[in-house]
Here is the input.
Amino acid sequence: MNPSSEKRDRASPPSVTAVVVSYNSARDLPACLTSLEAQRGVSLEVHVVDNASSDGSAELVRSGFPGVRLTANPTNVGFARANNQVLGTATSEFYALANPDTVLPPDALAACVEYLRANPSSGVAATRLVTPDGALQPSCHSFPGLANLLGEALGLDRLLPWLRPLSSLHMPWFRHDRVLAVDWIQGAFLVIRADVVRAVGPFDPEFFMYGEEMDWCRRIRDTGWSVIFLPDPPVVHAGGASSDPVAGPMFVENLKGRVRFMRKHRGAAVAAAARAILALSVALRFLWSEARMLALRLLGRAPRAPLRRNQERFRSAFGWTLAGMPVAPREPERLERRCF
Here is the structure.
């Protein structure tokens, strides 16, 4: 590109293709899509890929958001594969991924693309996530390894957060108040250069849900690009809107994502050790959850919803470990009742 054309491109609004993957998200989609359509300072094309929703999500997009491009899948193909149906197909300068339960302030996309344009070595940018009541939702993480997985299994990441080799998985010391290059960022909202997608490829479809953005960021960093966290503007993320009804299976998918990541990036021997650590973690959490529920029953007190969800998660995970911790991808038709 010659200097004059580059100057014109820099002066024009950056082009962004946004992708929203939905599954039974009719309750959240209107606010999300309205916030995307209200973005300032970018030339935006919005895609919704619906994974065979049964709550009218696809119909809502067709009737209420005619400017949005809709892909309605006949089965639930998973989060990674659904995003891949759009990633790499557009001619935009950037891609943005947004969960259907996010609401973006009007300058969220512009903040990310302006940073990426000003910092050529940065490949991905994402801003701070907050809950609907404004509380911080930690979104920056380190890649899993044997030390930080063991720290999580034994609860040392919470008891000794300053011991970074053991607590780095969730970075409890990071206050999300400054620009920082990190290992990986949660995929609820992020912006990535189209050049990066072309260089490293889209998501690995082996990841059904959970772990795909961790793997993606690892491949991006291995190629020489940095992954950048920006503190502002904050993006509202409800979190768990589609996965709460299937908390147990989704927690198992999260664990499977870690095993896949370790096998792919750390090798067979380290992956085997990681599986043992994860099995220990699941067993400890399962026993603690069952003990708490038993104590409440003996006291004649009803458990609150978070405790019941945790019990469902840990029972599902414990059953998965007893079954040998299989990680082979399931067939799409068996996942139609799952999230995303």
Remarks:
- Residues 245-335 form one domain.
